[in-house]
Write a structure and sequence with these properties.
7 helices, binds 5-O-phosphono-beta-D-ribofuranose, 7 strands, single chain, 14% strand, globular, disordered N terminus
């Protein structure tokens, strides 16, 4: 991409494009941002250029078509699409591009996201959407899966992912005792006080019997 062409492109439908984004994170509503923000945070943490946009399958269908059909030409390599309820955004996006589309079911108020999950996962044969878990776990994993996909072509992204996984493993191995976490520290202290009393009782009775 030339230096001249680094300004965000704004179409007549206001689809603002990040000039170097490899991942497009789209969502059906502003209300989905809370769920999708961890995906954007994880992409930032992995050093993956991305853009975030509200694109609604139902409220802005023309924008959805424009975004999905133009993403490949703009250099986007993976699309993460989050939506809730009758969640048609990931599937419709997938129908307009051959880029991999990762769907994040947003937890809906009425059905706790089961509606979103089924709407995204139950695609007809021929148009796949890689469907993640409901809510923030799914959003985080969508970014990690995007990193794995991008890592095939971009070795530095694969190494970022490897580093993330190593750090995560070491963090878990570093605290093998669940009672040592901050939440259970008070219990631990109480337990240790109790143990001390018990120990001194035993010592006393042991002393008596000897
Ligand atoms: C879907 O409808 C969106 O993805 C969102 O999860 C849900 C509710 O949208 P709002 O009514 O909060 O804008 O299209």
């Amino acid at each position: 991409m030339s230096a001249k062409n680094t300004k965000p492109h704004v179409s007549r439908n206001h689809a603002v494009a990040h000039p170097h984004a490899l991942v497009g994170v789209i969502m059906g509503s502003q209300s989905d941002w809370e769920t999708l923000e961890p995906a954007a945070d994880m992409l930032s943490q992995m050093g993956i250029p991305h853009e975030t946009r509200i694109v609604s399958a139902h409220r802005t269908p023309d924008l959805l078509f424009e975004y999905a059909s133009g993403a490949e030409d703009r250099g986007i390599e993976v699309i993460i699409a989050g939506a809730g309820g009758a969640a048609h955004l990931p599937g419709m996006t997938a129908s307009k591009t051959v880029l991999p589309v990762l769907g994040v079911p947003v937890e809906s108020k009425a059905l706790k996201g089961l509606d979103s999950l089924l709407s995204i996962a139950q695609m007809p044969g021929g148009i796949p959407v890689g469907t993640l878990a409901i809510g923030k776990s799914g959003a985080i994993n969508s970014a990690l899966l995007a990193a794995a996909i991008l890592g095939i072509k971009h070795p530095h992204i694969r190494e970022s992912l490897r580093k993330f996984r190593e750090t995560q493993t070491n963090r878990v191995l570093g605290v093998p005792d669940p009672s040592a976490t901050s939440q259970s520290k008070s219990k631990f202290r109480a337990g240790s006080h109790f143990s001390k009393r018990l120990y001194s009782k035993r010592k006393t009775s042991a002393g008596k019997s000897s």
